[in-house]
Amino acid sequence: MDTIFALASAQGKAGVSVIRLSGPQALPTASKISGGDLPTAGRALRVLSDQSGERIDEALVLTFAGPNSFTGEDTVEFQVHGSTSVVSAMLALLAEFDGVRLADPGEFTRRALENGKLDLSQVEALADLIDAETEAQRIQAQTVLAGGLGALAERWRVDLIRAASLIEVTIDFADEEVPVDVTDEVTALLAGVVSDLQPQITGVQIAERIRSGFEVAIVGAPNVGKSTLLNALAGREAAITSEYAGTTRDVIEVRMDLAGLPVTLLDTAGLRETDDHVEGIGIELAKKRAETADLRVFLAEDRNDIDLPIREQDIVLKPKADLLSDVPGAISGKTGQGVDDLVREIGRILKDRAGKAGIATRARHRDAMKAASDRLMSAQEILKRGPEFYDIAAEDMRSAIRSLEMLVGRVGVENLLDEIFSSFCLGK
């Protein structure tokens, strides 16, 4: 296997840059650059020189002996001064050694997967952690990266292997007297796994929202102050405001961190009857986005003025509180009246929903768990039909086990790997 290298820190000038080297030639190559032997696992301050002996930099060199490294291989990290010139010189030097090449995107992490240092769900969580913008995203990614989903899948797998083995023993000794009736234990094992799977399957949708962001749509008639409210929430002039109705024709999006959650605010076109073709397109788009939004903030003088069905937890406020005299439930983006209360209410609602998220975070996870759950419920029904159908129930259990193994990347995921790792940077 080739030894690979890449810049592991961000591109551009910095105080310190980290260059990672991993593979069978990592330690010998680093020793040549450092002018002497390096500890198999440890740290050393060394002068780094090219093959002609010309000094490149003085750096902290960290060594990790496989399998006790991120990739599971011998690994070296050079912490050099973050000059673009130093980094370029180091990368060019490493490329000169035989058997050493620049890493492909995500190749360090792929080797960690192949060497059993991470499972596939942890790889996905690592990508999520790198992309995390809010506290909720960080916490969610860290939970999976720490092995939470893999531990659950392994517990389910162990229970199902136990259940399948009990049934198969019954099949193998069908012509003999089996001393213990295993049906009750098998049924209990299957029921326990199905019970665990259901909240995780349900929670994926919320977990995906934590990853990608909740959508909150501001909805109402023209000229009720939707764009002014959006600007107040965003803290900047994100949308054009004027005294003329129908100014907003498209959906304006502003992404922000709200109560530690990623939230995209949507300013939509005013809802009204119109003969203007372009405005009509904007109104239809506004209705579609409002229907799919996680939460809607309606600005209306009267609830009866709202021509969209109001869902539970939707927020209805009276607009332009600055023109009213102490009316409860009113808001003004112009003066800021009620804006802080709205932010707190949105945060409360979305944090309550986020609390229902499971450990599983992706549609792929949901599909694998749903497939396993379906097969187990089928096995439960088949068991009720008697011992002559146990072989069919056992096959359903084995199918469920394979689905859970796909969850963590043990089988059947080769077609996913290139897509997953292509999103990583070179140094990861």
Task: Write a structural description.
By secondary structure, the protein is an alpha/beta fold. The protein has three domains: 3-114, Probable tRNA modification gtpase trme, domain 1 (Gyrase A, domain 2, 2-Layer Sandwich), CATH 3.30.1360; 135-209 and 362-409, tRNA modification GTPase MnmE domain 2 (Four Helix Bundle (Hemerythrin (Met), subunit A), Up-down Bundle); 216-353, P-loop containing nucleotide triphosphate hydrolases (Rossmann fold, 3-Layer(aba) Sandwich), CATH 3.40.50.300. It has helices at residues 26-34, 84-94, 107-114, 120-131, 135-145, 148-172, 183-212, 226-234, 277-292, 339-354, 363-383, 390-407, 414-421, and strands spanning 3-7, 16-22, 42-49, 55-64, 75-81, 100-102, 214-220, 252-258, 261-267, 295-299, 315-317. Strands 3-4-5-2-1-6 form a six-stranded mixed sheet. Helix 4 packs antiparallel against helix 5 (135-145). The protein is flat.
